[in-house]
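User: Structure tokens for this complex, please. No commentary.
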Amino acid sequence: MRHTISVLVINEFGVLSRISGLFSGRGFNIESLTVAETVDPKISRMTIVTSGDEAILEQITKQLNKLVSVIKVHDFKGEPHIERELLLIKVTANAETRAEVLRIVDIFRAKVVDVSPRAYTIEITGDEEKVEAFKELLRPFGIKEIVSTGRIAMPRTPKHHK
Amino acid sequence: MTKSKKLTGAEIFLECLKEESVDTIFGFPGGAVLPIYDALYDSSLKHILVRHEQGAVHMADGYARATGRPGVVLVTSGPGATNTVTGIATAYMDSIPMVVFTGQVPTALIGNDAFQEADIVGITRPCTKHNYLVKDIKDLTRVIKEAFYIATTGRPGPVLVDLPKDVLNASIEYSYPESVELNSYHPTYKGNLRQIKKAMDIILKSKRPVVYAGGGVVLSDAAAALKTFCEKLKLPTTNTLMGLGGFPGTNKLFMGMLGMHGTYAANMAVTNTDCLIAIGSRFDDRVTGKTEEFAQYAKIIHIDIDPTSISKNVKVDVPIVGDVNNVLKELIKLIPSAKGLKEYKANIADWHTQVDKWSSTHKLSYKDSPKGRLKPQYVIEQLYKATNGDAIITTEVGQNQMWAAQFFLYDKPRTYLTSGGLGTMGFGLPAAIGAQVAYPKRTVVDIAGDGSIQMNIQEVATAVQYKLPVKVVILNNIVLGMVRQWQEFFYDKRYSHTCVSVAPDYVKLAEAYGAVGLATGKRDEVASVLKEAMKVKDRPVIMDFRVDPAENVYPMVPAGQPLNKMLLV
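Assistant:
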């Protein structure tokens, strides 16, 4: 089972290594990990995509909370939230395929950010489902390279206050 | 307002230790910490000069285990720092409060592969509770304050502070922070009352309750509360290796240790219980055996200050996160007004009969004969007699550690000091020195094997230097006994590299160091050797007992088997 976990940490040197070391030392998975400063520059947010059964997820959450540098751990499972990742995809695009590639780019509201005689570099943002579908459609044309930011997430603001 | 004087980082360091009521540090000098050693020259702080940095950490560890106060270590950068790693990992596994200060090359040189540079903060990240590199003298007092706070609160553990030489030489106005502000660290001390009540309900409805108490009882100074709790509810009690002394070894309710080398009674009781009350213990694999069958008929209540310990290895029914001492006191408060107390006491009568039967049918024993070879267990029994059980015992790791756990009864907490989690050979002697430094008048004995004792033998010189009358009982069987035992049982008696018959003459070795050396292989000389050793008050004594190399530790639960599948004598 995949989980997206958001971890608020004190923004100090070595903190990334504390978190990644915890995962590797205890045999937990990291599928992706992103770090950036929050509104408060003293605090950073890490978004970690991990997998495991319930017991493992419970351990991951508890072990993260135990680190002195960790302020808060939040598992987005079963809660309305928004997830996004950004990809740069370099895809083969020659005279015959260009139009088709552009059409797909258009449908997905992606963007061509670099053009060469034989390839397009495309920027796309979205959740996992959209990004995966996009990759599938481009695959037949020949994907040369993909660079991804990894996933970030934020809870949805409740629409009705009780 | 008086303006405070400017002090150097090194001077501030010593001031901070004073603020933290540190009376003793264990250390070894070197280039990067020279500023501190220079300041120490004029200081009244007691510094124990060790012979190897690993020794310093185990000494600080022994000091901490014996007193409950944090042990403090000071070493230099590079190899000085890396030599502390085993000691730090030992303390981390057993949750021992400790602050280790390491020197570091000047900040400008960090990352340059400078002479005696090591990334000790990186190296010790996974084996410390937390660690720091102080890059600016402005942070020094705050970091030291936090280090002691983190080491001693919540689930205790070692904290390392790396001090670059230029920070130690810089000057600043000194003032010690009054409080710690850590918005990311809040240990839970008070147990949830609803959970505590639920636990009490389950206990009172049980017919076969068992208490399984670990090192957390000792760490939170909860021995008195545990005794009251168990006696009021007549709970048969077992201790983990780390828990020994947390419940009186001579108490009628005590079944002995459980686990791989636990007693028959304790292991059978835990296997058959319908209500397991785990207190300050962590379901270690050496305790549980096959986890699927561990206390499989029981509702499990688990009291622990560390949430990660709960349901990590074995799923529990009633978790109570909190300080063991606090939670036990809350539980005790509930007893007088508890509903069903009378029925409960009537219901558990049969269980007590059963436990007593287990205890009497398979007592801890060994095959002894006056004419046969000297048995290691016999030496420990004699040691118990010679000290009237009133001693701080430290151990090395292996058979010596298990026999020391089985054949010496510990009535008080902080009297059995052993490397339980990491299993560090070479722990016992320096730990004994640390305990003796804390309590110069008490009897402190390291029960050692001939394999382990050589791993930190150099610290005999430290004990001689400070006139510490540490006693070392070597159970000399000329083999690495526990490994040999496994080879006998599980590797077809192929004794690969476990014979250590080439060893020093321990009597001569002791004398070479300026200690007292005694030796015997005869049963009827054991008592007199021990008696003679106990008379020595001004230097260490090494006793070489030549014991039967074929002796094994029983009972034994083979790794991965359920607890009731014991090999018996």
